[in-house]
Specification:
The protein is α/β, with parallel strands linked by helices and about 775 residues long. The chain is about 55% helix and about 10% strand. It is globular. Keywords: Hydrolase, Lipid degradation, Lipid metabolism.
């Protein structure tokens, strides 16, 4: 049976109280991932919503001969969306439950709970002279509450606004330490609650990144032509976590103090919460938190080096980066693939911004305060993600361009391989020794036939290797102020030039002996590209062959991915030993020692022997037509690489597939109710703070988040099916999952008893 992974890179926007809606969406991603994990583990069918997802995966396997696994393996977020990202990543990695976060949002995300005790009015008669102003702001003509808040909730909102206005002034009304304790308690409740299996395969990388803003900033060096170096102020401070998922549940992504720090820092909304200082997290535990110094050195190395950590003040991540697509895109690097991958970037946008069109009513002149507030907050937060999406689209176009180039080159390459080896090659038993000899012969032939073009190819190849080694060394460098990437690259280049690699081509054609030795020790990317090309030629998308049984293709793909895993395991600095950072620290003084250590510890030549053992065993059992295809690709790869490498920008990506982008928004999920955000969400009221003033609003938005998140998850899963999924079947599945969500939330959502029943009736009326 064909196997495929639906890999989700999730981007959670900031959205103030609409974070409650986003939590409902992320809960459905969590539920789908749990159902997928149970399906692939062969566990008993789960209950509730997960049963519907489980049944969908079973139906796809039975009706479409496709075994699909859903893997949310990259999670990024900003502001309150960052909180949801941190908790979701912890649940994916540890197998813990997200229910404590649901309780936190519904029960505690209220101004009455969040407000700092020192900011409350001292009594009901505090600041009596403010009451006329409070009345004017909350009930007077044209007041914001009457214009933006539903009638049934205005009294509650007015009371809470009155309390805030009559409290302290010129300081944030909400408690930073109180919010930190709420987050920490939710993480502790996850830790102490039920634990299942992790939701990603063992050793699969999980990336989490949230954005924060370093209010005071720090100086960073910037290299120019003149002057050579200048100091610039940098305020962005992303906090990232990467971990290989364990085989057993209950192991945290990171210490809960670190996760609390990340969640609190990214959501320090200016004016509402005070900036986060490190002392606030220190105060959670008198005994201190394990790994504190290592964590701080990793996320704020400059402050640690200069002894300024106690002065760090972190504010909301969405001030500078509200849609952290770049962090999610960076996570694509060094991701293994055990089978065919359908990569999706999914972003949650509760309120898609649509400016007025030229034909709309004539807008009023921009006022003084509107211009200031818009330039400082609104416009940066709503800045479109066009640049990020265009970058993803360019990557997808490049993947398609690679496919077209390979298809165009194939007749020429296969003729060259036939001429080099003769057709009797494919009748021989492909032992590891023969594969090694054939491979070396094909590489030399391709280099010689390339003529003068080989020299540009060799320089591109060598330059790419040194760039990746420089990045590897810099990432492993233990110093708080890491050396400049260009300086590391220059040192490595000097070392290779001294060993005769300034001209990697031999005078008579092909590669020089020095270059061949260097490539055998260091050209990891070449090995990965070669096996990736074979895997692509074994996919139906690249090469449909109705006469080739899917079972034969799947066995061949499994062998290729097992061989790829050997090389993927050698990409990270973690594979180079615990003492490699100490070696990396000397790269500027002794770059040759660093290169030698990498070659010795990666052992790529031994890895080649293992990979060719796997490949030869697989070739032995393949039908002749499939064996011919694999051998022609394996031995023809040097020809393809010479022609394509200088033209491709992203060849370092190991997960090199077209990337599709999907949005989750009320505007995109209309199976139950049309009208989008305005017709479904209540947290948009009072400038997106509405849900912080009313539990009824939070319950409404959380429920709609689940419903609309489930609808879009069904859309995503169904879109992976070759040839499409029957639209009526898809609607039937949505109906089942909507009703299952209503059943799960019946007893939890009590502020408006008719809410769940009303939606249940809507579902039945519209979907049967």
């Amino acid at each position: 049976m064909r196997q495929k992974e639906l890999r989700i890179a999730l981007v959670c926007y900031g959205g103030v109280s609409l974070a409650v809606y986003m939590h409902g969406v992320t809960k459905e991603i969590w539920k789908l991932a749990r159902a997928s994990q149970a399906f692939h583990a062969g566990d008993a069918r789960p209950a509730g919503v997960e049963r519907v997802y489980h049944a969908l995966l079973q139906r796809i396997a039975g009706d479409h001969d496709l075994r699909l696994r859903v893997l949310p393996d990259i999670v990024t977020g900003a502001s309150a969306g960052g909180i949801n990202a941190v908790f979701l990543a912890q649940a994916i990695h540890s197998g813990q439950s997200l229910e404590p976060l649901t309780e936190m949002w519904l029960k505690n995300a209220d101004v009455e709970t969040l407000v700092d005790p020192a900011a409350r009015p001292r009594s009901l008669i505090s600041k009596p002279w403010m009451r006329p102003l409070v009345w004017y702001l909350t009930s007077g003509p044209g007041n914001s509450i009457s214009e933006t808040v539903a009638a049934e909730t205005r009294a509650e909102v007015r009371d809470k606004v009155s309390s805030l206005v009559r409290g302290r002034w010129f300081e944030p009304p909400f408690s930073g330490p109180g919010f930190t304790r709420l987050l920490h308690s939710a993480f502790a409740a996850m830790r102490d609650g039920p634990v299942g299996a992790p939701l990603l395969p063992p050793r699969h990388p999980l990336d989490l990144l949230v954005t924060t803003t370093d209010f005071r900033g720090r100086s960073e060096s910037l290299r120019l032509n003149s002057p050579p170096v200048v100091e610039e102020s940098e305020h962005r401070m992303p906090i990232g976590f990467r971990s290989r998922v364990p085989a057993e549940g209950g192991i945290a992504l990171a210490d809960i103090h670190e996760l609390t720090f990340a969640a609190r820092a990214t959501a320090s909304f200016p004016g509402a919460f005070p900036p986060l200082g490190i002392a606030e997290v220190d105060a959670l535990d008198e005994a201190g938190w394990p790994g504190r110094e290592t964590f701080l050195r990793r996320i704020m190395p400059t402050h640690v080096a200069r002894g300024t950590t106690r002065h760090v003040a972190l504010i909301d991540g969405s001030v500078l980066v509200n849609a952290p697509f770049a962090g999610a895109m960076a996570g694509l690097k060094a991701r293994p693939a055990q089978r065919e991958v359908d990569r999706r970037f999914v972003y949650i946008d509760p309120t898609p911004h649509r400016p007025s069109s030229p034909g709309d009513e004539q807008p009023q002149a921009v006022g003084f305060f509107a211009a200031i507030f818009g330039s400082l907050s609104t416009i940066p937060r709503e800045q479109p993600i066009r640049d990020n999406l265009e970058s993803l689209a360019a990557q997808s176009r490049e993947a398609e361009r690679l496919r077209r180039m390979v298809n165009a080159l194939r007749p020429v390459v296969e003729t060259a391989v036939d001429r080099l080896f003769g057709r009797t090659l494919f009748l021989d038993s492909p032992t590891p020794r023969r594969l090694r000899i054939w491979r070396a012969r094909a590489q030399q032939s391709a280099a010689e036939e390339a003529g003068y073009a080989f020299h540009s190819y060799a320089q591109a190849k060598l330059g790419g290797i040194l760039e990746r080694i420089a990045e590897l060394v810099r990432s492993a460098h233990p110093g708080p102020e890491k050396p400049d990437l260009a300086a590391i690259g220059a040192a490595l280049r000097r070392a290779t030039d001294e060993h005769g690699l300034d001209m990697p081509g031999a005078p008579g054609g092909g590669a020089s002996e020095e270059a061949i030795r260097f490539l055998r020790d260091h050209d990891l990317a070449y090995r990965i590209r070669r096996l990736r090309l074979i895997a692509r030629r074994l996919s139906r998308e690249w090469e449909a062959d109705p006469d080739m049984p899917e079972s034969e293709l799947e066995e061949a793909r499994e062998a290729i991915y097992r061989a790829l895993a050997l090389y993927f395991a050698r990409e990270d600095a973690s594979a180079l030993g615990d003492d490699f950072p100490e070696i990396a620290a000397g790269v500027l003084d002794d770059p040759q020692a660093v290169l030698g250590a990498i070659a010795e510890r990666r052992e790529l030549r031994s890895c080649d022997d293992e990979a060719e053992e796997i490949l030869s065993n697989a070739l032995e059992t393949m039908p002749r037509a499939l064996r011919r295809r694999v051998l022609l690709t394996y031995l023809g790869f040097p020809y393809y690489d010479v022609a394509t490498l200088p033209l491709l920008r992203n060849e370092g990506l190991t997960e090199y597939n077209p990337v599709k982008v999907d949005r989750i928004s009320p505007e995109d999920a209309r199976a139950i109710r049309s009208g989008g955000t305005a017709a479904t969400l209540r947290g948009t009221e009072f400038y997106n703070f509405g849900a912080f003033f009313s539990r009824a609003y939070r319950e409404n938005d959380y429920l709609w988040g689940r419903l609309q998140g489930a609808e879009r998850m069904i859309d995503l899963v169904c879109s992976t099916v070759p040839g499409g999924f029957d639209a009526n079947e898809c609607l039937s599945i949505k109906r089942d999952i909507f009703l299952a969500i209503c059943d799960e939330e019946d007893e939890r959502l009590l502020c408006e008893p008719e809410l769940v029943d009303a939606i249940r009736q809507e579902v039945r009326a519209k979907l049967g």
